[in-house]
Amino acid sequence: MRAKPIAIKVILVEPAGALNLGSVARLCENFGVDELRLVAPRCDPDDPEAKRMAVRGAKFLKAAETFSCLLDAISDCRRVIATCGRIDHGTIPLNHPEEALPWLINTSKESPVALVFGREDRGLTNQELLLAQKVITIETSPQYPSLNLSHAVAVVLHELNRSQRDFSTSNPKDKLSHQPASPVELNECLEETKELLLRVGFLLDHTAEARMTKIRGLLQRAEIRPEEVAMIRGILRQIRWAIKTSHS
Amino acid sequence: MRAKPIAIKVILVEPAGALNLGSVARLCENFGVDELRLVAPRCDPDDPEAKRMAVRGAKFLKAAETFSCLLDAISDCRRVIATCGRIDHGTIPLNHPEEALPWLINTSKESPVALVFGREDRGLTNQELLLAQKVITIETSPQYPSLNLSHAVAVVLHELNRSQRDFSTSNPKDKLSHQPASPVELNECLEETKELLLRVGFLLDHTAEARMTKIRGLLQRAEIRPEEVAMIRGILRQIRWAIKTSHS
After folding, report:
1. pLDDT under 50 in chain B at which residues?
2. What is the pLDDT of residues B215-246, one digit of tens each?
């Protein structure tokens, strides 16, 4: 199907239900996922209910690494797709799975890629969604759109599998050659930006977060590249220098 | 989305797990299924575990009609698709869901259509498979192909939903509602950026054009919006002010 397997990390943020956790572990084995990662889980991977649901995916529970925040969990991943149950998300455009998932695996690089799923009750926060380059939503009935967590994982992994199947036929080269900046790089760059914007008075303490969210959304939509992150840091450095030297 | 709704019957043959039964009821509500039917169930739709998993799909459990054999359960359905986990089925050709499902709903008749799912452990018998016009299988990892029943239902209902969706009309709404900034607006913003970057020494006369091309490329990839152009101009204004006032 594909030339060489891309390591796919399935990341659950604060999963609360042991049944769900076990079900997702089974799906990881069903669909050839590389690793299951947990961010601040609210249930125990050792729970007998989780093991019961995992069946032959139990090894994913055993091996699951736990992280304290999403940024840490995706720090080695270049391409990240988050999932969102809500329709009205303003900052990052929502995609159908079949639109965004081919992008996730259309990469020749060795970096792993990540699929992020939120809490059973509240999904992912906007801050968490903004750590991904793309956000997908599964279309469901408006009467009751809320899918069970493991069903959302099933649909997305199936769609990814379908994308991999079609992958051999077409892959535009220019897309292959551009890797987005790593989440950590981008985060550092945004922190530096925030400092400067506070200093020049564009941001005030009470507006900082909302405005930085907008800037992050813009850069994520662009799938900003490492060399562009470097360019922005160069600009920030030069502006700081200009402010400083105009003092003297 | 579709002109007139086709009544979709989800039929479970001898389901044994109350958790699965409840999960499937939830999925029926998630995906606008018309009715859940049970053939000789080996668990009780009234089981508290089933209700717990069904959440807002509990009415499907309550309304579920029970039949003694599959033929009775599909007697009013014209088009029937059965699901099969095994790869080596000789008698009826296996289809990918996306190949067969459009056929299921591509009908002007008022007859309901049926999706049939087999037992958790053994699936459907060959006799049962032969009651359907088409048989679909979900591609999974050869290492562990066996999907949990409710995950198979999730994937198939999602695929059916995808088939029903007319791409031209139902792209996610927020993609449509965001207009990119006008070329003139963007151009003015980039001119202003260039002036400032020359002033702070990030651009030199001989590098200006190449670097501004990169910045423009980044913003174009993001399909920058009018309000984001305004934000950037606000940042530029504030930086100019900071440089100026630090003089005095």
Report:
1. 1-2, 167-176
2. 988 998 888 899 999 999 999 999 999 998 87
Selecting from 3.30.70.240, 3.40.1280.10, 3.40.1570.10, 1.10.357.10, what CATH number does the domain A8-176 have? 3.40.1280.10
Which pTM value belongs to this model? 0.81
Closest of A58, A51, A43 to residue A12, by C-alpha:
A43
Report CB contact under 8 Å: A158, B162.
no
Q: Which residue from B minimizes the CA distance to A203?
A: B235
Average pLDDT, chain A: 89
CATH 1.10.8 at A183-245, yes or no: yes
| Amino acid type, B65 | E
Nearest to A83 by CA among A71, A106, A100: A100
B175-245: which CATH architecture? Orthogonal Bundle (1.10)
Nearest of A171, A206, A208 to residue A190 by alpha carbon: A208
The CA distance from B29 to B8, in Å, is 12
Q: Tens digits of per-residue pLDDT, B174-212? A: 444 567 788 788 889 999 999 999 999 999 999 898 899
A with B: how many residue pairs have Cβ under 8 Å apart? 168
Q: Do B243 and A247 touch (CB under 8 A)?
A: no
The arrangement of secondary structure in B8-164, i.e. its CATH architecture, is 3-Layer(aba) Sandwich (3.40)
Domain ranges of chain B: 8-164, 175-245
- ipTM score: 0.79
- Helix axis angle for B208-221 and A208-221, nearest 10°, is 100
Give the distance from residue B210's alpha carbon to the nearest chain A alpha carbon, in angstroms: 12
Find the CB nearest B27 among A29, A56, A151.
Answer: A151
